[in-house]
Amino acid sequence: MNPKDNIKVTVVEQVDGRRIFTLSVSDQNDQREYKIYASDNDISKKDGELTTEELELFALEQMQAWLDDTEGKLPKSKFLLLTSGGRIPTDDIESLLYIKKKVSDLVRTNVTISAPLFEWAKTKSQTEGTSFSELVSRGLTILKDSDKENVFDKEVETWFKEQGDYFKTKLGKFGSFEVSHYLPNNSTEFSPEVLKTALQTAEVKRTGWPIGVYLTNSDNRPVVQEDGIKAEYADNSIIMFDYWYAKYRGEFYFSRILESDNGNGTAEPKTSLYFDTLIWRVAEALEHSLAYYKNLKINEDEKVKFKISLYGLNGRKLSAWNPMRAFTLHHYICGSDKSSWELEISLHELSEKLDEVIYEATKKLLVMFDFFVPGKEVVFDILNREYRKSNF
């Protein structure tokens, strides 16, 4: 029994300006009900009123074409949406209709998305065992989810700002080094135990007091929160203060007093910024994030969003922890109170291009000091001859 010979149109209706055809289709083993959604623009006859016979004939033709797409087998999806001359099968017609409306809104504002979506689906269909139409449907769903992602991004940015405000209130008028990063496309929540292990094993053992240090035998050990784990560390013998907070979806915030302000060096507090120490901290922050997400078993193709900022800079002179590097820097003075660098990149690409990313971040953070640009060879020398050979 050929399904194309056993198609019956049972209902023809019009809802919200869209034609909905209900059809019964059977083969020798099964009988199923399908619905086809179409606008009048998808129906070839446009002059005058469409008769019931013409509408039923159109529905039969579309069902036969759908069966051709499935090589004569009863389709697995329950619904078929006709759109711009194409056919998209789905089991979630409400989401697809919502997306189609969003796409129409975008088109009306002259934002072209059809070509990128087509190229994405075409490339994917060549590497996956998935039909082109199903990939288009997936792409449209991704567009819908992007609205949720934007909300998530704003929520994360608000949370990062709250942590920064809290730290600065505790720190007072000293300068600070701040790191934040998260996975914009991650929906997984990690357990406290998994998060704890990932944090403990992500420490970079090069700098004496690592970013995100996890102490277990201290009154200041990390504390479990409703939404994550956080820690504060202070030392009154020098002016030292660290604060970090890791949330269960992978968001991580860290801030520390500038080391040129903590009294453990030659600079007077609130007067200088050590550019060589900054290179160490940028490198450590990025390496820590790579280890952290690797420990959380995040796929290396996942994107991560980074932001590194310096605060309390106005009027500071550029200097260096190593006095041999400081001689020619004192005339570079910062005229802004803040300097920031941001990047969205896959974990794989970050790992492959780590030194270049460190250089670009350092360059962006230091440009506020009278357009100072460190030489790439100087940055790489500090990384490879000092930072990576240090082992506390």
Distance between the termini: 77 Å
Strand order in space, largest sheet: 7-8-9-10-6-12-14
DSSP helix fraction: 25-40%
What order do the SSEs take from the amino end to the carboxyl end, as H and E? EEEHEEHHHEHEEEEEHEEHEHHH
The fraction of residues assigned to DSSP E strands is 15-25%
Task: Provide an overview of this structure.
This protein has 392 residues and is α+β, with helices and mostly antiparallel strands. It has two domains: 3-146, no CATH class; 172-389, no CATH class. Helix content is 39%, strand content 23%. The chain contains ten helices and 14 strands. A seven-stranded antiparallel beta sheet has the order 7-8-9-10-6-12-14, sandwiched between helices. α3 packs across α4. It is elongated. Residues 102-115 have low confidence and may be disordered.
In short:
The chain has helices spanning 52-69, 93-108, 114-127, 132-171, 192-201, 275-295, 323-326, 347-352, 354-366, 376-386, and strands spanning 7-15, 18-26, 31-38, 79-83, 86-90, 176-182, 223-224, 228-235, 240-247, 252-257, 272-274, 303-311, 317-319, 338-346. By secondary structure, it is an alpha+beta fold.
